[in-house]
Amino acid sequence: MGIFDFFSSDIAMDLGTANTLIYVKGKGIVLNEPSIVAYDTNTKKIIALGNKAKQMQGREHREIKISRPMRDGVIADFEIAEGMIRAFIKQVSGGAFSSRKIVVAIPSGVTEVEKRAVRDSAEHAGAKEVHLIAEPMAAAIGIGIDVEAPVGNMIIDIGGGTTEIAVIALAGIVKDESVRIAGDEMNNAIMQFFKKNYNLLIGERTAEAIKCEVGSAVPLKEEITIQVKGRDLVEGIPKTTEVSSVEIRDALNENIVQIIDAVRQTLERTPPELSADILDRGVMLTGGGALLKGLDERIRKETNLPVHVADDPLTAVARGAGKAIENINKYQKVFIRKRSY
User: Fold this and answer.
1) Distances from the Cα of 164 to the Cαs of 107, 223, 298, 340, in angstroms?
2) d(CA 167, CA 151)
3) Res 99: pLDDT
4) Which of 310, 315, 257 has the alpha carbon at shortest distance from 282?
């Protein structure tokens, strides 16, 4: 008997590299936690997951391993991912589960093998019917776009592992570009910057905090200076250094340029009628990366297109997958069709 046998309703899941969100039919988003698992290295038993595991990150001892089973928007560690899905579902479950349907949002650029891994993980957790939906399509539905209309819409969904750029019309993706440069790569760029320029070793959590606090894509009205703690690579002892938002912007610039290049490439391949629609309607930014200060302004400058940040961009994909599970017959067309293997 699977976890789903105890569960009261169909669910939708945004299985992200950075965060996992679960939407329960009739209830809305009931879980939003980091996609992080802490497990015992001897028994492989999960000790903590989500926020609790994130608090342990960088502080674990040899018998505890902290794992992020999702990398670049896809499953990197099958066993741990399955355990995480199962545990998250258990966390939000209650009552008797009857139809056991699940909609999972995945990057648009994943391979058939990667799609199969997501389907298998959900089925092993107990789902009887698994539907996959492309993240930009889910994001478009989540922010209230009528995806079935004969009108072109451009979505840029910047998550933890991937940036998904898609032109959507008539309930399908006309052109898309999926680049494995997003939040994680930005954190990595900040870590490398401190290593190279300050001989300072900082952790992933610190890098993420710096990105959220002072990271930007355009010059700020008032540049900020912050104190950063880490380990001196020369002396080997803890050290504090001062860094400005200008330096962090320089560190992030290469990643931002690559994202904008991918946007340009997608625009170049877009049919002219849809290009005209995008010029009228603008581009929608979703995902956690949409919150980077001034990113919308930078894309606007570089593409000459109107750019809007969606309301609550972090939950757009989960809300869209949720709408699909609420009205599964209406959204049949938008699901990724299963190929015969």
Assistant:
1) 7, 30, 17, 26
2) 10
3) 43
4) 310
Whether 152-181+262-313 and 3-35+72-138+317-334 are alike in CATH topology: the answer is: yes
**What pLDDT does residue 2 have?**
53
Q: Which fold has domain 183-251?
A: Actin; Chain A, domain 4 (3.90.640)
pLDDT in tens, 50-79: 999 999 988 888 899 999 999 888 888 888
Architecture of domain 3-35+72-138+317-334: 2-Layer Sandwich (3.30)
Provide the pLDDT confidence category of residue 339 given band limits of 50, 70 and 90. Answer: low
Determine the Cα–Cα distance for residues 297 and 307; give it in Å rounded to an integer: 7
- Residue among 74, 270, 78, 273 at smallest CA distance from 180: 74
Residue-wise DSSP of 43-85? T--EEEETHHHHHHTT---TTEEEE--EETTEES-HHHHHHHH
Match 């880490």 to its residue by tokens.
Answer: 230
Closest by CA to 168, choosing from 142, 147, 139, 143, is 147
Instruction: Tell me the two tokens of residue 172.
Output: 């399908």
Specify the pTM. 0.91
| Amino acid letter for position 28 | G
Strand runs labelled E in the chain: 11-15, 19-24, 28-34, 37-40, 46-49, 64-67, 70-71, 74-75, 101-106, 129-134, 153-158, 163-169, 172-179, 200-201, 225-232, 238-244, 283-286, 307-309
* pLDDT at residue 311, as a whole number: 95
Handedness of CA 207, 210, 212, 217 (dihedral sign): negative
CA-CA distance, 127 to 129, in Å (whole number)?
A: 6
Q: CA–CA distance from 10 to each of 1, 201, 294 (Å)?
A: 17, 44, 38
Question: What confidence category does residue 183 fall into, taking pLDDT thresholds of 50, 70 and 90?
Answer: very high
| CA-CA-CA-CA torsion sign (169, 172, 175, 180) | positive
Tokens of 226: 């912050």
87: tokens are 């545990």
